[in-house]
């Protein structure tokens, strides 16, 4: 980081108990950052080369207490990496209002709480970096991830507006839109189940579990991308990360709806008959 920062820079990484967050926090620690990770249950986290603090991003009080603990120990927070998240799988019709609200509460409002907590001091010092971990789903929403995609869409909008607002104050905001990564994320199931959606929904869930548990890209790719965003003198607003992100974004921009369905959605193989995806 090349802002008005002291050495070593202090980084707070949410959701750092495993997967993407742990890989990111570990890499930052290896590159000289003073890292604080978080978990809702820090007592159950395996040994890490950084302290892991208790944090529930759904709670105003928990966010305030966590940020106060970091500032009390390190004096400031130079970089916030909003990684904590969850994913709900289910058709939009199967998703209850309460389930959609819970998805937004963690993935969108949780990140917003964290940004609210660190921004006043960052603006006062005229320096700071915020990296929000988004998803390709936040730009190209797939079937059966409607609530998750909506939460990432919202995070994208908040982040882009915020980036414009705080740039004059020396604070930089970046989004990392990832796809096909071994995130290790746990998928919650919508409580309601409709038989008409069962086959394609379950096939989508199996596909997601395979990618995020064994078949996807290594979490170290995200960690290196976060490090790049933190160390760049001119960090980008958006970083696409994953083997097909660039191609899918271009297809969504260039193709008609019918062409996109035929070229991208139908090949997912979720429906027994091609008509189900077109």
UniProtKB/TrEMBL annotation:
Transmembrane regions: none
Pfam families per UniProt: adh_short (PF00106)
Superkingdom, taxonomy of origin: Bacteria
Domain (Ketoreductase): residue spans on this chain: 9-184
Record carries keyword S-adenosyl-L-methionine: no
InterPro entries for this protein: KR_dom, NAD(P)-bd_dom_sf, Sc_DH/Rdtase_CS, SDR_fam, SDR_oxidoreductase
SUPFAM superfamilies in the record: NAD(P)-binding Rossmann-fold domains
Keywords: Oxidoreductase
Signal peptide bounds: none
Entry's family note: Belongs to the short-chain dehydrogenases/reductases (SDR) family.
Protein name: SDR family NAD(P)-dependent oxidoreductase
Lineage per the UniProt record: Bacteria, Pseudomonadati, Myxococcota, Polyangia, Nannocystales
